[in-house]
Write a structure and sequence with these properties.
This protein is an alpha/beta fold and about 400 residues long. The chain has three domains: about 180 residues, Vaccinia Virus protein VP39 (Rossmann fold, 3-Layer(aba) Sandwich); about 60 residues, no CATH class; about 150 residues, Purple Acid Phosphatase, chain A, domain 2 (4-Layer Sandwich), CATH 3.60.21. It contains 14 helices and 13 strands. The strands form two sheets. It has a seven-stranded mixed β-sheet with strand order 3-2-1-4-5-7-6, with helices on both faces. Strands 8-9-10-11-13-12 form a six-stranded mixed β-sheet, with no helix packed on it. The relative contact order is 0.07.
């Protein structure tokens, strides 16, 4: 199968759909030109991408609604003729829009896991490969049911791929019709292939791999949506097991240097600016912990001439409800308590928008007003690191380690 000229696709996909496209175009024995169905295609962005990326693929784009299909047709007409003629459009609901044996691969993204499960019993009539990306957020029970249905009806999971979506972590399941019987886990709660890759990554010491953070984030999302019982126990054991593989760092030895580098992030001469009279760090990490022995609940302290304000503010919504609006916590009051003239602002969650729903827009507005030198936060584990935005150093100090002996936020 050939790529489009120059290997460039004019139709850019959302990041979450790239694993779907990659899996759809994987070579299939005995097929020189793949036939792919994009079921529930919406505006057919995936179909447009595939025909531009691969010069031999043919795509059938289907959707229940006529409006998005018409938009897809209009976009397809703007493509070169040889690409446009390799896309067909058809209105219909799910697999009922297909003829048996018409395609080799069925792709479906943004459809509820429960709905996808109902397709599995008859899916083998229509294709030899399934590439399914359930809509997010999806409960762990629904994903487990989908995996079980696949195994029960002769589908062998080849891979599961993680990608980021604004509302959560997307899982793309890639399965093919099994040529022989295969064993599966008694409780297929978590994606097996990523688990194996991640454990290998951690064992070799490559802790900053994005898939590691995405998988840990997925575990935490599942834990938030799972009540007491066996499933929660399995999830917690998995998280604890991964934490045991992660590299532990002694924050006692690095806290002072960490704050030093954060405050002088934009300085060429870190040492010189750090020693500026009245703005220096004269105390040891131990002295800081003694001065701030308790948590800061929307209050400020001054340590070594540095003015610090701490808040447990945690935007979003989760079953534990800690310091979130559904638990009665007043976000507006907490934000208004952030004073001017701060050196360091410490909050549990980030400011702004996105971050899988964990960011506070109100907090961002206040930060723009009071301009702290440094904002330190956690909660959003995929964003771990240091950046500078509009003159404010942003330190995402999240560790994603449930049993870490020490933490920054």
């Amino acid at each position: 199968m050939g790529d489009a000229p120059g290997g460039v696709c004019a139709t850019e996909l959302p990041l979450r759909l790239m694993p779907v496209a990659d899996a759809a175009l994987r070579p299939m024995p005995g097929r020189e030109a793949l036939r792919v169905a994009d079921v529930g295609c919406y505006k057919a962005l995936l179909a447009l991408h595939l025909v531009q990326r691969d010069a031999s693929v043919w795509v059938l784009a289907t959707d229940l609604a006529s409006g998005p299909l018409e938009v897809g047709r209009m976009l397809a007409r703007a493509l070169p003729t040889d690409q446009c003629r390799r896309i067909d459009f058809r209105q219909g609901d799910g697999l009922s829009a297909l003829d048996p044996g018409e395609v080799d691969v069925v792709c479906a993204a943004g459809i509820a896991a429960g709905k996808l499960s109902t397709w599995i019993p008859c899916a083998a009539q229509f294709a030899q490969r399934l590439v399914l990306q359930p809509s997010v957020p999806t409960s762990p029970e629904a994903m487990m049911e989908l995996r079980c249905r696949m195994a029960d009806f002769g589908w062998a999971l080849q891979d599961e791929l993680l990608s980021i979506e604004k509302g959560g972590i997307c899982l793309t399941l890639v399965a093919e019709v099994a040529t022989s019987s295969f064993l599966r886990e008694a409780m297929p709660l978590l994606p097996t292939a990523p688990r194996s890759r991640i454990r290998h990554t951690l064992q070799t010491g490559t802790e900053d791999d994005p898939e590691v953070e995405a998988f840990v984030e997925l575990l935490q999302e599942y834990l938030e949506r799972t009540g007491p019982g066996t499933l929660r126990k399995v999830l917690q054991e998995e998280l604890d097991s991964l934490n045991a593989l992660r590299h532990e760092h002694d924050m006692d030895d690095h806290w002072g240097e960490f704050v030093k580098k954060s405050l002088d992030f934009e300085s060429q001469d870190v040492g010189q600016s750090w020693q500026t009279p009245g703005r220096g760090f004269a105390g040891s990490p131990c002295r800081w912990r003694e001065a701030a022995a308790g948590p800061l609940h929307d209050e400020s302290i001054e340590l070594d001439s540095l003015k610090i304000h701490g808040s447990p503010l945690s935007a979003g919504s989760s079953p534990n409800g800690a310091f979130q609006s559904q638990s009665g916590y007043d976000e507006a009051k907490a934000v208004s308590a952030v004073p001017e003239g701060l050196d360091i602002l410490v909050t549990h969650g980030p400011a702004g928008e996105g971050a899988l729903g964990r960011a506070s827009e109100r907090l961002q507005v206040r930060i723009d007003e009071v301009r702290p030198r440094v904002h330190i936060f956690g909660h959003y584990h995929l964003g771990h690191g240091v950046a500078c935005k509009d003159g404010v150093v942003q330190v995402n100090a999240s560790r994603a380690q449930a049993r870490a002996s020490r933490c920054l936020v």
